From TrEMBL, chain A:
Function: Catalyzes the breakage of the C-P bond in alpha-D-ribose 1-methylphosphonate 5-phosphate (PRPn) forming alpha-D-ribose.
Protein name: Alpha-D-ribose 1-methylphosphonate 5-phosphate C-P lyase
Similarity field: Belongs to the PhnJ family.
Pfam families associated with the record: PhnJ (PF06007)
TrEMBL record, chain B:
Pfam families in UniProt: ABC_tran (PF00005)
InterPro entries per the UniProt record, alphabetical: AAA+_ATPase, ABC_transporter-like_ATP-bd, ABC_transporter-like_CS, CP_lyase_PhnL, P-loop_NTPase
Single GO MF descriptor: ATP hydrolysis activity
Organism lineage string: Bacteria, Pseudomonadati, Pseudomonadota, Alphaproteobacteria, Rhodobacterales
Entry similarity comment: Belongs to the ABC transporter superfamily.
Database matches in PROSITE patterns: ABC_TRANSPORTER_1 (PS00211), ABC_TRANSPORTER_2 (PS50893)
NCBIfam families (UniProt xref): CP_lyasePhnL
Domain ABC transporter: 2-229
Designated name of the protein: Phosphonates transport ATP-binding protein PhnL
Organism: Thioclava atlantica
Length: 289, 230, 256
């Protein structure tokens, strides 16, 4: 099934070794951005080249791979990457969170809790959380080294001053084990609490920016906030219109041009599993047997 | 309180062929507490130079200038700053202040720099300005816009804000009308009564006669006079 | 005499910096005492900016020591020096753009140093920022405006507030009134004088403007070709200059 024109999982073994070394360093120093020699991949930057390289370095022939894009298994980005590894590595693929050993994700953490032994690989566009206010890489590296993180709170201060609350809704900065401040990639802040104390290994790859960072299992991850404006993991105040779940992260879908809309789980696997179990939301189609 | 011994001073004009102009030699002066000494002598004889040397504004070439326990000829800038803040007051003929600062603030400043509270310092400033007949509507304005006589009175108020143990007065009554002249002379007398040692330049002979205990003719301190005597 | 028993805040010993064959500053020594304003004057290229950079830890001198409260800031580690730079020290740049974050609101600019030293209460940070805007005469209503919307004088006052909010002991100023209109300069000078007195700040002030030096500095150092050629009480140096160069400098200025 594997295409013999490629090495297993597309990358050559030397490259995978180089990436694994970066991953091990990242695991050893949680939240620290490890530079790595990012390769050209057969897809454009912004399509997950960092995540794909990390996944390639982690995959074994026995793995089962799941790929999601904003929670969905069936969008172009997710389908392409899944097909890419099915062809170049010949691994099993799945849409079921519970069945996957490696999950590559863009902008979500699955609703179903992860377990020990699983690896979650994030695609990261901009790994540097301080970039917003300090454009010089030399300076941001120094700020990380010296734990000078006041600037991160300036960003949150600006949010409150302008909007009355911390309006940062995704890529919400976190502090890892009381040391490094880290950009969790553009996941909604609703997902931030799942970063902490997670049994799975979480790996982050930024292809264009050539950075890898990681959270080993059960790492303490705290979302930054102010005493009088504490962090809130917010979501739309609705239930899923398909499966009726009141606690999952929702996408808003416009259904017509007269203002009609519905809210559905962004995690398609989670929603389908619930519906298969018989849960029904407000607009769920009547099941005919 | 003020003791000058064998003081000499010359200016070297490096940018005019290095000309050396001796202006003072072998000057002596002693002023006790509660005493007021007038410096006299023709214009250019060195009255202002001597005043400026006591103030620390001009460097001495040789000799000693003791005010209290400090010899200004040997003192570090920091010691002179402390002396000016606490011990030595100076009423010059010219007002040099930061533009835009209200008059009340200008007068209160010597007390504020001594650590007085704002209310206390401004109360003293108000009393002095009122006593010197500066109209109250001007107190909130900068004295840089005032007339010569008004500026002179602001300067006097500032110089008498703190009860300095030693005072230098450069023409304190020039350009003042009779009423204000009387106020200034009363302030000087009051300072003497509390024990201040005062050195002054007065062209106003009646004023000089009234407040000064002695006259010292600085012509005797000129290098030419020294050569003549030798 | 009172407070004569204190120790100097900053002791500079034989400080030198060369750029290849060219002298930046050579063999500079002085003490700075608490509450004192030291002016450094001289024309462009005289070494005053190099000296300021070395003193503020932005540039490493080739030789000499800089002792801040007895600690050698040249020998100490960079992290220690950076901690000093955001707590005990402050630096006011000539161009406010170099000292402000132009994309951050006035309140955020003032609050940054507080957050850098651990302030995590939004309300308290905002209160401190509002207070400081008032102290530098910027209306409280402008707290959420960005510095670009401010005039040059306001930007400079904002930079000062941003620097002084953590109550530093030592402030480095590089031509703080340069580039401002004369009327705006006066207001700033008055403000600086008040702050220096009320907060008991020690200041090292680099300027080529002798009028500014006269109004702000207690003491002056005159530099030429990297060397300190004259040093003394401000009015004494300006009214009775000793060195040929100082005499030229003073006589070249219209009425200071």
């Amino acid at each position: 099934m594997s295409d013999q024109a490629f090495n297993f999982a597309y990358l050559d073994e030397a490259t995978k070794r180089m990436i694994r070394r970066a991953l091990l360093k990242g695991i050893a120093v949680p939240g620290y951005q490890v530079p790595f020699a990012s390769r050209e991949m057969p897809m454009p930057y912004g399509w997950g080249t960092g995540g794909v390289q990390v996944t390639a370095a982690c995959l074994t022939p026995e793995d089962t791979l799941k790929v999601i894009d904003q929670g969905a298994d069936d969008t172009t980005n997710a389908v392409s990457i899944r097909a890419f590894f099915a062809r170049t590595a010949g691994v099993e693929t799945t849409t079921r969170t519970g069945e996957a050993s490696v999950i590559q994700t863009r902008h979500r953490i699955p609703e179903e809790p992860l377990v020990e032994g699983q690896i979650l690989v994030y695609q990261v566009p901009i790994p540097e959380p301080l970039r917003f206010l300090e454009p010089r890489e030399s300076e941001t590296r120094k700020m990380h080294a010296l734990e000078e993180y006041g600037l991160m709170h300036v960003k949150l201060y600006e949010d409150i001053a302008r909007h009355g609350e911390i309006s940062t809704a995704y890529a919400y900065p976190v502090r890892v084990e009381g040391r490094y401040v880290m950009d969790p990639s553009p996941i909604p802040k609703f997902d931030n609490p799942k970063l902490s104390d997670n049994p799975a290994i979480q790996l982050f790859g930024a292809g264009r920016e050539q950075r890898i960072y990681a959270l080993p299992p059960y790492t303490q991850v705290v979302s930054l906030d102010f005493e009088d404006h504490p962090f809130v993991a917010s979501k739309a105040e609705h239930s899923c219109d398909l499966c009726g779940c009141g606690t999952s992260y929702l996408d808003e879908v416009i259904t017509d041009d007269r203002g009609g809309r519905m809210f559905v789980c962004s995690d398609t696997d989670f929603c389908e599993t619930r519906r298969a179990q018989g849960h029904r939301g407000r607009l769920a189609p009547e099941e005919r047997t | 309180m003020i003791e000058i011994e064998n003081l000499s001073k010359s200016f070297t004009l490096h940018n005019q062929g290095g000309a050396v102009i001796p202006v003072m030699a072998g000057a002596h002066l002693r002023v006790a507490r509660g005493e007021c000494v007038a410096l006299t002598g023709a214009s250019g004889a060195g009255k202002s130079t001597l005043m400026r040397m006591i103030w620390g504004n001009y460097l001495a070439d040789a000799g000693a200038i003791r005010v209290g326990d400090l010899d200004l000829a040997q003192a570090s800038p920091r010691e002179i700053i402390a002396l000016r803040r606490e011990v030595l007051g100076y009423v010059s003929q010219f007002l040099r202040v930061v533009p835009r600062v209200p008059t009340l603030r200008v007068v209160a400043e010597p007390l504020l720099s001594l650590g007085a509270g704002e209310a206390e310092a401004e109360a003293r400033a108000r009393d002095l300005l009122a006593m010197l007949n500066i109209p109250e509507r001007l107190w909130a304005l900068s004295p840089t816009t005032f007339s010569g006589g008004e500026q002179q009175r602001v300067n006097i108020a500032r110089g008498f804000a703190h009860p300095y143990p030693a005072l230098l007065l450069d023409e304190p009554t020039a350009s003042l009308d009779a009423t204000n002249r009387e106020v200034v002379l009363a302030l000087i007398e009051e300072a003497k009564t509390r024990g201040a040692a005062i050195v002054g330049i007065f062209h106003d002979e009646a004023a000089r006669a009234r407040v000064c205990d002695r006259k010292v003719d600085v012509t005797g301190f000129s290098p030419q006079a020294r050569r003549g005597a030798a | 005499m009172k407070d004569m028993g204190e120790t100097p805040l900053l002791q500079v010993e034989a400080l030198s910096k060369r750029y290849g064959a060219r002298i930046g500053c050579a063999d500079v020594s002085f003490d700075l005492w608490p509450g004192e304003v030291l002016g450094i004057v001289g024309e462009s290229g005289s070494g005053k900016s190099t000296l300021l950079s070395c003193l503020a830890g932005q540039m490493a001198p080739d030789q000499g020591r800089v002792l801040y409260q007895g600690r050698d800031t040249v020998a100490m580690s960079e992290p220690e020096r950076r901690v000093l730079a955001r707590t005990d020290w402050a630096f006011v740049h000539q161009n406010p753009r170099d000292g402000l974050r132009m994309g951050v609101s006035a309140g955020g600019n003032v609050g940054e140093r507080l957050m850098a030293v651990g302030a995590r209460n939004y309300g308290a940070i905002r209160e401190a920022a509002t207070d400081w805007l008032g102290r530098v005469e910027i209306e409280a209503g402008r707290i959420d405006d960005r510095p670009r919307q401010f005039s040059g004088g306001m930007q400079q006052r904002l930079q000062i507030a941003r620097n002084l909010v953590t109550a530093p002991k030592l402030v480095f100023m590089d031509e703080p009134t340069g580039g401002l209109d004369v009327s705006v300069q006066a207001r700033l000078l008055d403000l600086l004088r008040g702050l220096v007195r009320d907060m008991g700040l020690s200041v090292i002030l680099v300027t080529h403007d002798l009028a500014v030096a006269r109004l702000l500095a207690d003491r002056l150092m005159v530099m030429q070709g990297g060397h300190v050629i004259e040093h003394g009480l401000t009015d004494q140096v300006l009214d009775d200059p000793q060195a040929p160069y100082t005499q030229l400098l003073v006589s070249s200025v219209l009425q200071v």
